[in-house]
Structure formats: C-alpha cells, structure tokens
C-alpha cells in the first residue's frame, strides 16, 4: 500500500496538477489503480498470466524451460517457482514495448559476433545463436556456469564462456575488451552490457575497440547509477556513435534504460 501511494497516488496527483496533458500520467494511473509492480508495463498481464512449464533434466540435475525450440537452463539453487517468476520477467523485459529490450528484432543484427557481458542465463544469446557466427559469454558467477554450459551444449563449437569480469583493467579475474579483442578489430561485434552499474568500467576498458573497430553495435544499460545516462552518452559522443536512448518507466520512475546504437 505504501509503494502504491509513493509511486502512484502522489506523483499522479502532482503531475496531473501541473501538467494534465502529460503522456506519463498513464504510468502513475496504472499504479494508482492496479497497485505497485516491479515491472510496470501496461502489457504485463499478458505475461503474468502466461502458463510456464518447467522441466527437470535428471542427468544434469537442472531445471529448464523451452524458449522457442531450445532449452534454457537455470541455476541449481533456483526453485521451480523462482524460475517461473524470473522467466516471465525476462520475457517482459525483452518485449519490444519495454524500454529494457536490447534489440527490436533479429533482423537488425548485422554483426558476426555477439558479446554478452553480464549474461546470467543467456536468454538473448540463445535467441541469436543461429543468427551469429560466434558468441562470447562473460560470466563469473559459478552458479550460472553449469546452466550456461547445459544451455549452449548443442552449439559448443560457436560459444565461448569467459569466466572473467569485464573491467577497465587486466588483472587476475578481470579483463578488458581492448585486451580480449586486440587481435580481432576486424570482426563485426555486437556488445550487450548489463552489469549492475559497472557499464562505465567496461567502456573504460574498450576505448581502442570503439576507436579502431569500424563495425561495432551495442546495447548498454543506463539505469543502474543515477548519472549513467550522462556518463555513457558522453563516452559514445566522444567516438561519434549513433544511438537511440530508450526511455520508460523502470525501477520506480521514468528514466533512460538502454542505449542502443553503433559507431558507424
């Protein structure tokens, strides 16, 4: 009830008072009428009411769901109920109506190599697995490794799991994209970054990549830190990138959520 008042009733009243024609009123009205939801999408019920079947791979002792015609595995410590909730959330976030979606459709992927930085379960990589020539999955959480290996086992010849943090330095369990791709500047790459506020560190470690690789696409999350939009946009402007700032209601307020663009 408190969140409904804080994120619905009060902002709806104030915005309606000062700018009753604002298109943003629909979000606050939704909370005001329907109650608070972490994923404030006006289409959310399409997914919240979706029947999700969770299966057990007895040999691996892992649960999975069928994503399209492919198995998407989850961590061993996740219950069926948690997997259902998470999977619905993943589908909602990547709906084209969500500001959190990374790509509009598979048709816009022009890159040969997809780089999934902060991949977790790897759902977007699984979506693109038959489209691109190679995928690099950067993930350090050991609890996700077994799930990723199971998910991408049918395509193990075109998937590389890198158990390092992508960062601004090369040290122990950290690596920069500049160092990782230093001999591969001629590859067309798509960089997807969702690393809980470390996006700017990742970018700080791939300046040469942005400077020297003429075929670079990206989708970068900009909502983790309050000044992400400003800092990340400034970086992209420095390398004359073209990009679209996807804004929407996410995590309690209207904000920049994902910047999608390229350097050509």
Describe what you observe in this structure:
This protein has 264 residues and is an alpha/beta fold. It folds into two domains: 2-36, no CATH class; 102-262, Rossmann fold. Helices cover 33% and strands 23% of the residues. The protein has ten helices and twelve strands. The protein has helices at residues 2-18, 25-34, 45-48, 80-93, 123-128, 142-151, 177-180, 199-204, 207-212, 228-238; strands at residues 55-57, 62-67, 70-73, 113-117, 134-138, 159-162, 165-166, 174-175, 189-193, 216-221, 242-250, 253-262. The strands form three sheets. It has a seven-stranded mixed beta sheet, with helices on both faces. It is globular. 33% of the residues are buried.
- Give the termini separation: 48 Å
CATH architectural label of the largest domain? 3-Layer(aba) Sandwich
Instruction: Tell me the number of structural domains.
Output: 2
Elements, N to C (H/E)? HHHEEEHEHEHEEEHEHHEHEE
Largest sheet: 7 strands, mixed
Percentage of residues in helical conformation:
25-40%
For the biggest β-sheet, the strand order reads: 6-5-4-9-10-12-11
Integer average pLDDT: 91
Q: CATH first level of the largest domain: which class?
A: Alpha Beta
In the predicted model, the low-confidence regions spanning at least 5 consecutive residues are none
CATH topology of the largest domain: Rossmann fold
Q: What is the count of β-strands?
A: 12
The structural class is alpha/beta
Gyration radius, in Å: 20 Å
User: What percent strand?
Assistant: 15-25%
Number of helices: 10
So, the CATH homologous superfamily of the largest domain? Answer: Vaccinia Virus protein VP39
